[in-house]
Amino acid sequence: MIRLFARLILRPLRAEPVRTLLTVLSVALGISVVLAIELASDAAAGSFRSSLETVAGEADYEITAVGGLDESLYAKLSQLPIPIKVRPRIENHAVLLESKQTLPLIGLDLVAHALDTNSTNAPNPSNPPASPSVTPAPNLAPGVSRGVILATASNRKPGDTITLRINDHDHLLTVTKVINSDTAFAIVDLGLAQDLLSRPLKIDRLLIEATDNLEPQIKQALPTGATLAPFGARTEENRKMLAGFRSNLVILSYIALVVGAFLIYNTISVSVVRRRSEIGILRALGMTRTTVLTMFLAEAALFGLAGIAIGVPLGRLLAEAAVGAIGATVQNLYVSSQPGLIALTFLSSLKAVLAGLTVTLAAAWAPAREAAAIAPVEAMARGRKDYDTSQTQFRNLALSAFCAAAAYFASLAPPIGRRPLFGYLAAALLVLSASLATPAFVHYLTRSTRHLLKSLLGVEGLLASQSLDASLRRTSVLIAALITAVAMLVSVGIMVGSFRETVIQWIDSQLTADIFLQPAVPASADRFPTLTPGMAEKVAALPMVTMVDQFRAYPIFFRGLPVTLGSGDANVVRQRGKFHLLEGDPESAYAQMLNSDSAIVSEPFVNKHNVHLGDTINLPLGEKIHPIKIVGVYTDYSNERGYIILHRSRLLRYLPDPAPSNLAVYLRPGTNLTQAQRAIENALADSRVLILPNQSLRREAILIFDRTFAITYALELVAVFVAVVGVAGALLALVIDRRRELSLLRFLGAARTQIRKLILCEAGLIGLLSVLGGIILGGVLSLVLVYVINKQSFGWSIQFHIPIAILLGALTIIFTATLLAGLYPARVALALNPIEVIHEE
Amino acid sequence: MANSLHNQLPLLVSPLSPTSYFWPLWPLRLARGVSRGVQSALTFSARFRLARSANRGALTATILALTLHAQYRPALPNYQYNFPKDHYSHPDFQTEWWYYTGNLKDTKGRDLGFELTFFRQATDRTAKPSTWAVRDIYLAHLALTDITGQRFFHSERLNRQGPGLAGIEETTKRVWNGNWQVTWQSENQIQLQAIDPSFTLQLNLTSQKPPAIHGENGVSQKAKGEGRASHYVSLTRLKVSGEVTIGEDKRQVTGQAWMDHEFFTHQLDAEQTGWDWMSLQLNDGRELMIFQLRRRDGTIDPFSSGTLIERDGRTRHLSQIKMTPGRRWKNYPVEWTVEAAGLKLQVKTRLDNQELVSKQPQSPTYWEGSVAITGDATGLGYLEMTGYEKPFSFGNP
Amino acid sequence: MPPNPEIPVLQFAGVHRKYQNVSALDGVSLSVPPGQLLAIVGRSGCGKSTLLNLAGAMDFPSSGTVHIDGQSTTGLDDRALTRLRRDKIGFIFQSFQLLPNLTAAENVELPLLLAGQPQARERALDRLDRVELGGLGHRYPHQLSGGQMQRVAIARALVHRPRLLLADEPIGNLDSTTGATILTLLRKIVSEEQATIVMATHSPESTAFADRIIEMRDGRIINPS
């Protein structure tokens, strides 16, 4: 069997090394992309753990409240006459100025931690320290000193002085202890953390160790606004949210593998078609059907394994490149986390291996079955090499129509658990439908354009068109693969383009102020550094300033899901904003916000929580729960958690922290922007503040947007590249297959240049057909992406917009690439010696 | 419940370096802290603290330490006690502790012993008075001996005052550390509460005798030199009733307890390496407190002494005492022959392993447990032995 | 197993074969005893190839029965048919049908490998010797002349010692000299190995070597002798 496989399958492959290599390469690329995305998204999301979970350890419950907990609650709970353990935390971020690195800043009760003990007996030796080694530090009692425990991979030692930028101020701190760690973090005592963050009396979270039966007693001791939740519930929510994002990414990554599968299908099909009579002989000589099937599946498996061997290390390399981009997206849209290390685990490798093998074997199944079905009589038949496709064509068209209809209905279905699974199904069905329709599409299109081609390109065009039509079985799969790749590019291009256009319009309406101020530290979807209170007044006092709006944001949890709670000045918005409401009357909405507990909320919030205009939601603010009425819904694209916005002074009643997250400054008409900027700079000389004119903030926003989608583009490009590689491989097969015909043409007087032109025409025709099909399929897919998948997974309404220039550019590149893919086969065709070829049989 | 990372956290994040737990070296450490302009010192475990001059820099350390102590008040003769005020905190003194030990019996006749101790150690009187400033460190120890069941449980706790995590408060009549607390109900009624995941104490104590003041002229001298002494007062016979739970096992108990309260600024000298202390409650209605200080050269310090409390509460200072060690468990002599106040007593532990081993390798370990008395008189008591644990090199685990 | 002279190697009884209303075989009965070289002659489309397909266990009769070495093909599944072919039948094709990627020796070896028989290589080389191609075993088909290729094909057809050898126009692609050599070789094999050969041909040279000749027209045997 092995000997047979080696002779019958391996030997022909060796005879065509370039084609074999191209097929292997396409599979390898597919696998590497899948693996890279898997590894990179794992690393980027820091195992989907918020960086605020740093050194949280294990606990049974956690207590939180919007705007923070009163520190006295810590003392109250620790004195409860029940066996619980209470650990307070302050959680924020700081920038290590020397390395510009953002790291979690965690405030702990270091005194209590110093002798942390909760059991009466000796420590359990079965739990050896998983912690990094501890370096002795000089004595710095917490709270009194400005000591910080620094975990970092860089070379620091106790006694070093570091500067941490926290919100809009820099703080000089002494390192008391260094922990060698891949993830960086800084730990300070609670008191110091409160000082550094200018948040006296507040802590962010209490972690509780307690048995279940104590829950009622703990609850009873809490103010109504505080939430007691099982420990890790929020991490779990974050994980779910990120899992959605991750599945989108993973699905995108599989496109490359699917395109690779098309190519495997093509390769095996070609191999089968070319060897029909050979298979007939083998069957006549006594080879069983099972053996035939096994042989061809083994051939596919060989491609798969070779692809895996190259793809896994390549994927590891690609992950390195992707992790930054994915990390940025996670930060922008979801949660602050530090990219962890890329870990190529056994499990992730196994997943890649399985995915690769499954896809290649599945792709090879149909052609291998076909091979097994070849009757031994075919050995007797003479010259019957291609067979009619017209009969299957009709059946395929009917199937195609069925798939398209199914896709339509799938697109109407609601999401499952906030994931647009039916949307993906619809997309997959559409791709299937297009693949089934491809032979007919190519057939009718080549038929109807034959004369046009002849007049445009001469006889070579005609011959190319005819040969394409004649070898439909070989080429249609290839064209389907390319159509799929192009369609993905087009649809994602349209989706991102629409999104981009929508966001630009949204920014135009949102960013009405002239200058924006924010602390000079990075913010993210759940991280809102604050400015020193009083800054707004200082700026407002400047002569060229007419108004200052103060915006404050809190990352909170509403009904168990992360949401951003914000406050702004409804007066300013009313006077100056072109602020457009999706639902609700702006005038009355702002009036209600000023005078009552009313809020406007963002569209993703409405979609996610299924609340409506006019509803009242119960929002825990500080110690108590307050009913808040929704008086308006507005469009927002800045994050997918959703916003609840109250009027500033209303929110200050419940959360009396006056520090704003950013300021929007309106200038007198005709003020020189640079002068104004300088004046603000001077007024705020002692704070570390970013002063952004409207234009630069706009640029920044678009930049963030583009960065967010960079990885998407990259994935699409890989898919197209895989497809183009496939074109080269398949054309090569065609040339080798038709060497007799090509030689005959030479005998009939065709010049070498004409042969080349013929091959290139064929390549160009494939490219053109694929681009054409891709545009059609891509257009339909983009509707699914924009109106189904995107809407369901992010809750954003996007206006449809076709980025014509970008698409045209991309398609031209693809077309050119396909044309170039014909160059090598053309060279092979030219290298054939017509006399030898004719005499071969 | 808690495991893995969290349990490692103290090691991971402790800002208090191993040296700060180098328990016998506290003046040295303080000195170092001062020289850096910072405070430290979480350095006490049991009732005496000793220093060894053999350590590097000890001389300068001692000088510096003395300057530091200037912030605090030394224990000097002619101190006028004023109860109940003197049952509470004395923040002018650097160190203060409250010890409750006792022997109990449950309704089924099973024997138990307990220890609940609160320490206050002043660390920084210059720190600005904010909630989280570490002006004092509060440490507490809890131990339960199941004598019949031959089991020993112990636990420890460390806090600052913070927003009310620990403290001593005369207004609410409380001494507490988390949910371990002592509450004075009246002049002679005290309530103890201590909750640990594996055992709890809820005890009502009634003092049978007036406070006994040890030493002479209101000071218990510990070494040569002015101020090398403490103010030391005890409630030597407290009638106990209450409840002890071990796991799910709830027991009603009665018995007798002893309370020690001591406050001072510095008392020992560098040659003193450890001590042996006993509180003995005799069945004839008298009590005996004795301690001996061991010196580096192996001799017994002449400042070792004791107090005999008569049935009516009158006290007698005992400067001539003799404690002879007998059988040892590990390094600890768990059987003693005591000669004092004309009595010769055999003091034997009721369970060998009553060693309080700290979870922190840097933190001190000592022996404190229930003992039984035979000989010229019978009774029960508590014994404390320090300075026997791993030969003093445990700063570097 | 020695050939049993009582049982015909190939027996057709009232065999009809229809392809979509076109009758390729129309009531053929035929019995070929062991050791006979039977030539079937007739024009293209007379049913020769269909007869060979049925004889080769590659096709079933629409009605009637085909017995190969006493075994009926009726009711056999693909696996059993495959085994029948593998064990009892050898094929020689007009266009040789050598696998281009295999050397001569490998081609000959193939049926043995497929049947999982031992010492395939030795037996293949031995076979090649006997068709006078010793030493050319390492050559690929395109490095051989037409006559050499057909010898390889014969060697391949005989390597597993089949009871029945089917030859479809074995010299159709060869010049007459070479053709004669091949026919002599076949004749020799019949006598030496007691093989039975059914040969479709339309060349008179071929018929000269046959023990018996039947002629077919429109799916029928017209000289039942």
Search tags:
heterotrimer, A: 841 residues, alpha+beta, 6-stranded mixed beta barrel, elongated, C: 225 residues, alpha/beta, 6-stranded mixed sheet, 7 helices, globular
Architecture overview:
The complex is a heterotrimer of chains A (841), B (397) and C (225). Chain A has 841 residues and is α+β, with helices and mostly antiparallel strands. In chain A, 57% of the residues lie in helices and 16% in strands. In chain A, helix 9 (289-333) packs antiparallel against helix 10 and helix 9 (289-333) packs antiparallel against helix 21 (694-737). Mean pLDDT of chain A is 81; it is low at 117-144 and 382-387. In chain B, the strands form three sheets. In chain B, strands 1, 2, 3, 4, 5, 6, 7, 8, 9, 10, 11, 12 and 13 form a 13-stranded antiparallel sheet that branches. In chain B, strand 19 (328-329) and strand 20 form a beta hairpin. Chain B is globular, with a radius of gyration of 20 Å. Chain C is built from seven helices and ten strands. Chain C has helices at residues 48-55, 78-88, 104-115, 120-130, 146-158, 176-193, 204-208; strands at 10-19, 22-32, 37-41, 63-68, 71-72, 89-92, 164-168, 196-200, 212-217, 220-221. In chain C, the strands form two sheets. Chain C has a six-stranded mixed sheet. Chain C has a four-stranded antiparallel sheet with strand order 2-1-4-5, covered by helices on one side. Chain C is globular and about 45 Å long. At the A-B interface, helix 3, helix 4, strand 7 and helix 5 of A face helix 1, helix 2, strand 3 and strand 4 of B.
The dominant shape of chain B is globular
The biggest beta sheet of chain C, please?
Answer: 6 strands, mixed
Structural class of chain B: mainly beta
On the 0 to 100 scale, the average pLDDT of chain B is 80
Order of secondary-structure elements of chain C: EEEHEEHEHHHEHEHEE
| Helix/sheet category of chain C | alpha/beta
Radius of gyration of chain C over all CA atoms, rounded: 17 Å
Quote the distance from N terminus to C terminus of chain B.
27 Å
Low-confidence stretches of chain B are: 1-67, 390-397
The description of the largest β-sheet of chain B is: 13 strands, antiparallel
Helix content of chain B: under 10%
Specify the overall morphology of chain C.
globular
Structure summary, number of beta strands of chain B: 25
Gap between N and C termini of chain C = 29 Å
H/I helix tally of chain B? 3
Poorly predicted regions of chain C are none
What is the percentage of strand-forming residues of chain B? over 45%
What spatial order of strands do you see in the largest sheet of chain C?
6-7-8-3-9-10
